[in-house]
Design brief:
Layout: H1 16-19, H2 22-38, H3 42-59, H4 63-68, H5 74-86, E1 92-96, E2 99-102, H6 103-128, H7 132-143, H8 153-183, H9 193-199, H10 201-224, H11 243-265
Antiparallel strand pairs: 1-2
Helix pairs in contact: 2-6, 2-7, 2-11, 3-6, 3-11, 5-6, 7-8, 8-10
Length: 266
């Protein structure tokens, strides 16, 4: 299960999605999320799914790697769908004792499941196709106007980038600790929910210790390289918007506008 967590991973490539300016990708992802929450019709979701399929095909990342990242969220997705299935009022479809399933509940559950899936995949494509350092530079440039009100933009962008970068590392460390505990006879799969929670304590303690050790090592390495924030800092790679970024933005905006128009006219 832990190997299925792909959040924060970067898959190197030379596709248009990989070469695009990180600022363009960040803005388009934000617009994608906004559009997903704005529209509420199957044709609109079909347009958004088509757009996402084009992005995935362009990135040349294996779909099985992308959908594998949904496995850890199956419980959350199922719970969301079931909760709305049984607790949405409307026309009765069937009755299971004190619980009533309605047509509106089925529709709402399906809508939310599709929305969550599209949201997770669309957001993950940003980290799949963007190197951590590029993501940091893009966030910093987009948030640069906040410097006028003394917001530490560079530090915030650096912290977000480091957090995303270390998610795969922590997942790998957790898997190693679990394998070591299983070799000593630990059982994480039997028992009720409370017993399983207690069984995770021997994993959480060494994981926190390892995390603090890695954080200290990273801080020491940054201090040895005379890191002191973003003031006066230069970049080896300068961000530059190209015609491909403009074309990608134009196509994306047309797709988002089409999804919104279908929703409003429907």
């Amino acid at each position: 299960m832990l190997r299925d967590i792909t959040l924060g991973q970067y898959f190197p490539g030379k596709s248009i999605a990989h070469r695009a300016d990180p600022r363009t990708k960040i803005v388009l992802v934000m617009l994608f999320i906004f559009t997903l929450f704005f529209v509420r019709s199957w044709p609109s979701y079909g347009i958004m799914a088509l757009y996402l399929a084009v992005v995935i095909a362009n990135s040349k990342i294996a779909p099985k790697l992308i959908f594998r990242g949904l496995k850890p969220l199956i419980v959350i997705i199922a719970f969301t769908g079931i909760f709305n299935l049984f607790y949405t009022p409307g026309r009765e479809l069937m009755s299971l004792g004190p619980v009533t399933v309605t047509w509106e509940g089925v529709e709402t559950a399906l809508f939310l499941i599709v929305r969550i899936v599209l949201l997770v995949i669309g957001s993950s494509m940003l980290t799949y196709t963007t190197a951590p350092i590029d993501l940091t530079d893009g966030l910093e440039r987009l948030l640069s106007p906040l410097r006028r009100v003394r917001v530490p933009v560079h530090e915030l962008a650096m912290m977000m980038s480091i957090a995303l970068r270390f998610i795969p590392t922590l997942v790998e460390e957790t898997e190693k600790i679990m394998n070591a505990q299983k070799a000593r006879g630990a059982d994480f799969e039997s028992g009720n929910l409370i017993q399983r929670g207690k069984a995770l304590v021997p994993i959480l303690v060494p994981l926190f210790v390892s995390s603090f050790r890695r954080a200290e090592e990273l801080a020491t390495a940054m201090e040895c390289r005379l890191y002191h924030g973003g003031e006066g800092r230069t970049r080896m790679r300068q961000l530059k918007l190209t015609g491909a970024d403009a074309a990608a933005a134009a196509v994306s905006l047309v797709m988002f506008a089409a999804a919104a128009a279908v929703h409003l006219l429907g």
